[in-house]
From TrEMBL:
This enzyme's EC code(s): 4.4.1.-
Originating gene: csdA
Residues in Aminotransferase class V domain copies: 29-246, 324-408
Matches recorded under PANTHER family: CYSTEINE DESULFURASE, CYSTEINE DESULFURASE 1, CHLOROPLASTIC
GO molecular function: lyase activity
Keywords: Lyase, Pyridoxal phosphate
Primary enzyme class: lyase
SUPFAM superfamilies (alphabetical): PLP-dependent transferases (SSF53383)
Protein name (record): Cysteine sulfinate desulfinase
């Protein structure tokens, strides 16, 4: 277990850039991981190396062939990391852009008059794309309401609204507002029980950093991540698509390979940084288990991350030492409840008598980085039904520590004492 091994926590933190300080602010505790996780030092070094190479991947010269090899290796690494025995990986502008592309393609091949199903908990990356392309393609959009008290949506919720004419479905793997993880495999099975040929596309952007990905187990057709939220850098997204989705009519160059989904010259550096991320999970798995196979080590790393991040969120909620937890502070309300087993490294709260934006600034002045979520086009689907205009999102990752959480609890406790 990570929490029982201080030396391992130190080794983990040593692999990340700016883990305890911000180059603009100085000393800083980073609880804004849902907005973009810390970057591996190896990612920064690798990115800089490939940024200086002028050759296009695939050209018949040593650099062109070498960078193409880097891209090919990264796709193989992704297949191990995400457990994909078929389909293909490709990079795009961002996770959001890739979700739009996949959903657009699925909607435009769907039979006229069929349906698109999604849920109200989803990030606008999928909800906006599904609603827009359903209307353009002459499809009916079906909204599955999420549970306001639980902050998630279930397979039973989908089943209640499923019909055989559902041709496209979207699923959110984890909410960046409530922090709750959805059972993608169960939801996918519920969809396919009623509509076996439905094209299912998953937003895995918030979930991916927690290290438990199993595409073969999900039985879906598309899955997108944003690597800057998985210890890499900004500027690109990664998608996986099934062989079925790969072969469907999609945006492509005339006479290009029929299953090609990438546009233009590839950035070898972005792919190379993916390999660094996978190597990190492999390393962590070797530290927390005796597994020898890469996939098994990655699975072990995912289990260790889940256990430690659950420990961190429980510490924030229940308290540590002589500090009360968030649940015991009368001036604090925890979104989706204090006891929610679906939580993935994130606690969103409201502090009575304080505008969330002000709380975030007060914490920031003390070197504690959090974030405000407002009832806008990003988070209104979650906050408005709760009668909230805003909340404070506190998001942890496995390089955070109990000592950092103690600082946070102390600062929030004072807010109640000062009124």
């Amino acid at each position: 277990m990570i929490q029982d091994n201080p030396a391992l926590i130190d080794a983990i933190r040593d692999r990340f850039a700016h883990v305890g300080t911000c180059p603009f602010q100085g000393e800083r505790i980073f609880f804004e991981n849902a907005g973009g996780a810390l970057t591996l030092k190896s990612v920064a070094e690798t990115s800089a190396f490939y940024a200086a190479i002028p050759d296009n991947p695939g050209r018949i010269n040593p650099a062109g062939q070498g960078t193409q090899g880097v891209i090919n290796k990264a796709k193989d690494d992704l297949a191990v990391f995400m457990n994909a025995s078929s389909g293909q990986f490709f990079a795009g502008e961002s996770g959001t852009e890739l979700l739009f592309r996949m959903i657009r393609t699925a909607c435009l091949v769907a039979p006229k008059g069929s349906k698109v199903i999604g849920s109200s908990i989803e990030h606008p990356a999928t909800r906006s794309a599904a609603c827009r392309w359903a209307e353009i393609a002459g499809l009916e959009y079906v909204n599955v309401p999420h549970g306001n008290d639980t902050g998630l949506v279930t397979a039973d919720d989908y089943t209640a609204l499923m019909t055989p004419d559902v041709a496209v479905a979207t699923i959110l793997h984890a909410s960046p507002v409530t922090g709750m993880g959805m059972d993608v495999a169960a939801i996918s099975a519920a969809i396919r029980f009623v509509a076996p040929d439905c094209l299912i596309i998953v937003d895995g952007i918030q979930h991916a950093a927690h290290g438990q990905l199993d595409l073969d187990g999900y039985n879906v057709d598309g899955y997108a991540i944003s690597p800057y939220k998985v210890f890499s850098r900004h500027g690109y997204g990664i998608a996986w698509i099934s062989d079925k989705l790969s072969a469907l009519p999609h945006d492509m160059l005339i006479d290009a390979p029929a299953t090609g989904w990438e546009f233009g010259t590839r950035d070898a550096g972005s792919y190379a940084t993916v390999s660094e991320v996978v190597a990190y999970f492999d390393w962590l798995g070797s530290e927390v288990s005796d597994e020898t196979e890469p996939r098994k080590r990655i699975e072990a790393a995912g289990r260790a991350i889940l256990a430690y991040e659950t420990h961190l969120t429980n510490t924030a909620i229940n308290g540590t030492g002589n500090l009360p937890g968030l649940r015991d502070m009368d001036h604090v309300t925890i979104l989706a409840g204090a006891d929610n087993p679906a939580r993935e490294g994130l606690v969103s709260i409201v502090v009575e008598g304080h505008v969330s934006e002000d709380v975030v600034e007060i914490l920031n002045q003390q070197g504690i980085r959090t974030h405000t979520r407002k009832a806008d086009h990003y988070s209104g689907n979650v906050l408005t039904p709760l009668g909230l205009t805003d909340c404070i999102r506190i998001s942890f990752c496995h390089y955070n520590t109990e000592q950092e959480i103690a600082r946070l609890l102390g600062a929030i406790k004072v807010l109640g004492e000062n009124g």
